[in-house]
Amino acid sequence: MESLLLISGLESDLGAQAMVTGSPFMTVLLARLVTFYNSIPSAVDPARLEEILVNWVQVHHYHSEEMQDPTFQGRTELLAFFSFLDYLDHLIRVSHSFTAQSLSTEIKEQFFERHLEPKLLSDCLESDNPELLLGLAFTSQTWLHIKSDRLAHSFSVWLLGEELSDQPTLPTHTLKDKLINLCTQPGLVGLEAVRMFDVLLSSPCPYILDRLVTVHMETRGYHVSNSNPEAIINSWSDVEDEREKIENLSEDIKRNSRSVTPSRTLAPSNIHRLVNCWLYLVPDQLRLDEVRGSGYDQYVADASKQVETVAKDCSTFDWPREATGGWEKSETSSSDSRIEADPSRQWSEGKFLSTIL
Q1: Positive or negative CA dihedral for 79, 85, 88, 89?
Q2: Contact 37, 111 (CB under 8 A)
Q3: With b meaning 16 or more CB within 10 Å and e meaning fewer, what string describes 315-336?
Q4: Most Cβ neighbours (<10 Å): which of 177, 197, 291, 298?
């Protein structure tokens, strides 16, 4: 297996093409993945799948006698499947770009679509439908074993569709719509569907976030349009600009990467404006009720830590550093952060947020 990692990582276009098109490389790997998957007993408990989080290098430790669990039916088969999935993910990370893209596409078409998708599209919506519950649990655990960018993209396209937006004029993605609708189902199916989306969002990935949330935030109007006079006021002062450059330089030394121009969108005055808009979502009675102890200060402190953690996790995403959105094209756009203040601007939170909120 390690030899295959070395060979697939060679920086040779001809070698990569020969491996993909002129050898059983793809066929053997996909056949082995499907074999491991088919060996898993159908009676495995979906609730116990979350216990399986392994990597292919150290999985042998889980087969030791002291790690055995006779109450966990299918544990050995699950370890074999997810460890091999982790190996394929590792292989994609280190392989030549052509090899990695080809393998990611094959996994999407030969495994996700042919074997995992039928479980998720089960017509039976009973609250304890074992096939559907198992499919949702498998999807969650599969995502937790994906670390490579190309496989993450293939997984996102399979699960949520190629199109970022879910506007009525665009063709709908059957699987995405089905999974979102499952969140409203009673019983275990609804809980497992919500858990699946929680797993997807708890491991930040731009492909997942863009398709579920951020594409709908672009036209929300949180940031003042660059054509608006307020945008000039809400930009960096000379002192703030210099301080940001110094901070970027220190981070640049730590990360050993080039520094970037400070973002006008992230100017302190803009950040304060956005934070205040968020804080004012809490009613005054709760924010100012110090007598009975509303816990608002603790709420702000906890939320601040959560935002910092998420921002750190998303720092490597290739997102624009300046606010973008179709609303900037409108000359009549209001500078109010609330889109309701300007009827000329239409905003929809998207099907996912409207379902879970």
Answers
A1: negative
A2: yes
A3: eeeeeeeebebebbeeeebbbe
A4: 197
